[in-house]
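Issue: copy button drops trailing tokens. Both records pasted manually instead:
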Amino acid sequence: MGGMDNPYGSLDPERGTDDAGIVDRDPEGVTPPPPPLYPEAGTLTTLLRGARRRCPRCGDRDTFASWFAMRIACPRCEWRFEKEQGGYLGAMVLNYVVGIGLWIVVLVVGLVLTVPDVPVLSLTIVSVLVLVLVPLAFYPRSKTIWAAVEYLVLRTDPDYHAPRHRDPRARGLE
């Protein structure tokens, strides 16, 4: 009777093959995991994705709804950007450091170039412009860079598993 001996042919865990003789397991009887949906990027690539306002996991560009409103999760890979309430404190610190750092550079260069007769009004106006415009311009990048830092930290957790290709028919079985 060939393949008709066992009506449950492909469901038999001892066989490892279906009725057509196709092996669906490796020789040890363990089903290999499906390939990762998004290949793991290195640390530098992940941080560069953040600096380019992209998702740290998949690199998707659609991370912001507007200049100041970041999406809750990536529309492509569903990575949740803010892991907890107030999770962007690091992004605020990063934005502050960049703004103050650039202001100090502008102030020092301005003082060095005009040391005998320092134009106080001009330096004050330039300082206010730098301290207002730089944080506004850098705001989205600070959030995505911080999301990349959080991703790198959470990726080292032993419980983290990269998303895998799954059979859409098995969705209800998970």
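Record 2 (pasted manually too):
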Amino acid sequence: MSGSSASYIFALLLIGFLLIVSVLFFGYVFTLASWAVSTKIISVLVYVAVVALGFNWFQAGQIANLKYQVTASGKGSETLFSDLYQNSPVAYLRTDATGRILHGNAAALRLCGMQTEQLVTNNLFSLIREAEVDAARALNLEQRIYAGQFVNEVEAELFVGGGSRWVLVSAFPYEHNRERLITLIDITEQKAVDIAKTEFVSLASHQLRTPISAILWNLELLTNVLGNAPADQIAYVDKVRRSTEKMNGLVNDFLDATKLEMGTFATKTGPVSLNTFMAHVLESFEAQIAGKSLELQAHIPATEVVLATDEALLHIIVSNLISNAVKYTPERGQIGVALDVVGNGVAFTVRDTGIGVPANDQPHLFSKLYRASNTKTSPTEGTGLGLYVVKQAVELLGGTIAFASTEGVGTEFVVTLPYQS
């Protein structure tokens, strides 16, 4: 039985006992014929006062006991928190709002390779560097921590002991927002595995390009040699060519993705006439649009718009978005492509009346190798790399990408690039 339950039962028993005693006392007093009425009344009042004092004394004791239990519980919680903080395998740091390190637990000391006296002479932001700054986010990691915002697992590089390690940084306001509680989760080994996988994919893709190019070249020669061959033979060759071209596209997607991830994509910035560029891109999709009887609504400014950017990256962005619109829009649907000058940059808009993206899939749409659930039941093919590559390319050009989609209604993507890419 808990202490509170025992106290409650004891209080009930005490009240019952007092009621019984009171009835007996009052009955006895008022049956005494020798006592005057005033004496009887005074006796009752004295009895009531004694009972009230006793009850108040009991209540005060209960309150004091409760305060003691709360204080003891609070001290126990503080001790538990302190033990968890100090002995946790996760590295914890306490800093002020500016990032000055106030304390670190044992795991933080091991991760940083320092003693407490040395650790507290550092500023957190002199030790870490955010891996990727999201252009769509107003504040970087340092500014978010300073502002007292909650930060959840931001990838950063930790520079300690003459080398560096990769960590996931989380931050929480602490001590009435005067301090920050920082967690550092070491992901160096996972990062090394990811880099090794990326390098392997890049190497394999490079090795595949040569034989695929040879197959395509020989198929072209074979088509010319066949000339007036039977239709079924030509159809077989066309089928092989289409499959090889799909394989070539897949390899190119993997190469683009790995180059962007590893930072080895060779960018070349120069003036690009966006009017001419958009006309050429749309021309490359004319056959596919006509094949599905799609209605194309193109809005390109009459005046020339020139942007200093990397044309190859820009082609990856726009062609992927238009390709998806054509691919996932049913026959006789509509596709809209627009180029607009907005503020200090330009905006590319691609919208369609296609299958849309389910709400549950939208947070993962730009993830690597991710395909929306409703695309898996459609007859279209895809790798799940297109939008991932698009986002990487947009960020490399210093731009932003946003989208709105309703399943069964359609999707609209808007890419905004600054004039100084």
